């Protein structure tokens, strides 16, 4: 009997008409493992004791005793089957739901292990440091390289790098950047022209670092300064000159109004020199280079 399972031992005891002992074994087996089945086993312990007391007192007939025994036997066999299903099939104490949970956890662990291995392999393919080459040119093409000024970079949220001067080809190189620190970071250009020029970045061929040696081209468009010129034209007698045609630098045209006033947005910085030509009725009245500045001015025309 030592080699038999618990459910086999219970069946053997039932066959030997030892229901009370079978109930005791089942109660011990389910204690602290399955509350519902433990309670059923305890009930059968009580039924066995009650049937024994009633049989000894002669209260029940033989048929009644047999019927009660059959009920107890059926309940004990059901408990034995439940024990075999829950604790004797495969690993003891592991139900089908628990097995499925274990299988799911194993699959997750395998997937995580595979991901970690892939990351290790991926990281091992990257050098510890990399060089980042920066090229600047205007929208007309690489032949219009921007060679003056200095360049800095902001990589991700890190503090900007040291300023680097541009060479004669519009190139500078940021060397020995940490792959682990900057791989995949965003790249923002900080350009410091020699002259105080406004500009905007219209394109760049890469917005993040690869963690390997890389070249990033930035296309910059310079924005010219604009000065609003306002002037009133007078003749030698101090009369205003309406309807005069004004040409500035050969490309910008405007006409004075009834009060001899005109204004024009000249694409040059304050203080720059511009060429003014003033005509009326096909006659040239004025041609001269003037330093432009914002605000109202007067031009006497001889």
Write the layout of secondary structure elements.
Blueprint: H1 6-15, H2 19-30, H3 35-57, H4 62-88, H5 96-124, E1 129-137, E2 150-155, E3 164-165, E4 171-178, H6 179-182, E5 187-192, E6 198-204, E7 214-223, E8 227-234, E9 245-248, E10 252-255, E11 261-266, E12 273-280, E13 283-291, E14 295-300
Parallel strand pairs: 1-7, 8-14
Antiparallel strand pairs: 1-4, 2-3, 2-5, 6-7, 8-11, 9-10, 9-12, 12-13
Helix pairs in contact: 1-2, 1-4, 2-3, 2-4, 3-4
CATH topology of the largest domain: Immunoglobulin-like
CATH architecture of the largest domain: Sandwich
Percentage of helical residues? 25-40%
Major beta sheet, strand line-up? 4-1-7-6
Report low-confidence residues grouped into runs of 5 or more. none
Order of helices and strands: HHHHHEEEEHEEEEEEEEEE
Range of strand content: 25-35%
The oligomeric status of these chains comes to single chain
Q: Pairing-aware structural class of the strands and helices? A: alpha+beta
- How many domains would you count in the coordinates? 4
Characterize the largest beta sheet: strand count, sense, and whether it forms a barrel.
4 strands, mixed
Number of helices: 6
Report on this model:
The protein is of the alpha+beta class and 302 residues long. It folds into 4 domains: 6-93; 94-125; 129-223, Immunoglobulin-like (Sandwich), CATH 2.60.40; 227-300, Immunoglobulin-like, CATH 2.60.40. Helix content is 35%, strand content 31%. It contains 6 helices and 14 strands. It has helices at residues 6-15, 19-30, 35-57, 62-88, 96-124, 179-182, and strands at residues 129-137, 150-155, 164-165, 171-178, 187-192, 198-204, 214-223, 227-234, 245-248, 252-255, 261-266, 273-280, 283-291, 295-300. Strands 4-1-7-6 form a 4-stranded mixed beta sheet. The chain is rod-shaped and about 150 Å long. The termini are far apart. The mean pLDDT is 85.
């Amino acid at each position: 009997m030592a080699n038999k399972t618990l459910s086999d031992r219970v069946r053997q005891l039932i066959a030997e008409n030892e229901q009370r002992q079978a109930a005791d074994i089942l109660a011990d087996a389910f204690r602290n493992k399955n509350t519902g089945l433990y309670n059923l086993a305890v009930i059968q312990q009580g039924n066995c004791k009650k049937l024994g007391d009633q049989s000894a007192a002669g209260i029940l007939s033989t048929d009644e005793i047999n019927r009660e025994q059959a009920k107890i036997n059926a309940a004990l066999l059901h408990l034995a089957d439940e024990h075999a299903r829950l604790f004797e099939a495969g690993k003891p104490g592991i139900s089908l739901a628990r097995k499925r949970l274990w299988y799911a956890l194993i699959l997750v662990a395998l997937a995580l292990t595979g991901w970690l291995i892939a990351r290790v392999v991926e990281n091992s393919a990257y050098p510890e440091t990399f060089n980042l080459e920066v090229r600047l040119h205007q929208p007309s093409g690489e032949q219009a390289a921007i060679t003056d000024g200095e360049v800095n970079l902001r990589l991700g949220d890190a503090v900007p790098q040291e300023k680097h001067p541009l060479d004669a080809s519009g190139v500078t190189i940021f060397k020995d950047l940490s792959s682990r620190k900057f791989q995949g970071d965003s790249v923002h250009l900080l350009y410091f022209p020699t002259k105080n020029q406004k500009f905007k970045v219209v394109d760049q061929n890469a917005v993040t670092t690869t963690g390997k040696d890389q070249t990033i081209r930035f296309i910059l468009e310079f924005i010219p300064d604009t000065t609003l010129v306002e002037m009133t034209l007078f003749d030698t007698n101090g009369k205003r000159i309406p309807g005069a045609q004004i040409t500035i630098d050969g490309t910008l045209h405007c006409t004075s109004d009834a009060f001899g006033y005109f204004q024009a947005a000249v694409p040059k910085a304050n203080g720059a020199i511009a060429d003014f030509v003033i005509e009326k009725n096909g006659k040239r009245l004025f041609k001269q280079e003037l330093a432009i500045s914002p605000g109202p001015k007067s031009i006497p025309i001889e």
